Amino acid sequence: MEYRIREARPAIEHSFGRVEFAEGTLVIWTTVFSFRIPVVGKLVDPAFGTALDIAFRLILRDVEKRALDRVRR
């Protein structure tokens, strides 16, 4: 699945997003964006990248837990 974010806060230029579902439970999530205000981007980019990584991992862990709960029923 490919997508593009048109509006966001803080303002970003989102050029590409893709979620790939591979055989088994492998999910590959790719997104490419930059902040519209360069100074802000340079200041928050490292922290924002870490926060996104944590958020995506938590989402995927929750999805995996829900899927396993359904199978066990």
Main sheet summary: 3 strands, antiparallel
Helix content: 40-55%
Which structural class matches the secondary elements? alpha+beta
Poorly predicted parts: none
Rg, Cα atoms, Å: 15 Å
Q: How large is the count of helical segments?
A: 1
What is the N-to-C succession of helices and strands?
A: EEEH
Query: How far from one another are the termini?
Result: 29 Å
The general outline is elongated
Strand percentage: 25-35%
Q: What is the total tally of β strands?
A: 3
How would you state the average pLDDT, rounded? Answer: 83
What topology, given as strand order, has the largest sheet? Answer: 1-2-3
Question: Could you give a quick summary of the protein structure above?
Answer:
The protein is of the alpha+beta class.
What does this structure look like?
Helices cover 48% and strands 29% of the residues. It has 73 residues and is an alpha+beta fold. It has a three-stranded antiparallel β-sheet, covered by helices on one side. Strand 1 and strand 2 (12-21) form a beta hairpin. The protein is elongated, with a radius of gyration of 15 Å. The two termini are 29 Å apart. The mean pLDDT is 83.
Task: Show the helix and strand layout.
Elements: E1 2-3, E2 12-21, E3 27-35, H1 38-72
Antiparallel strand pairs: 1-2, 2-3
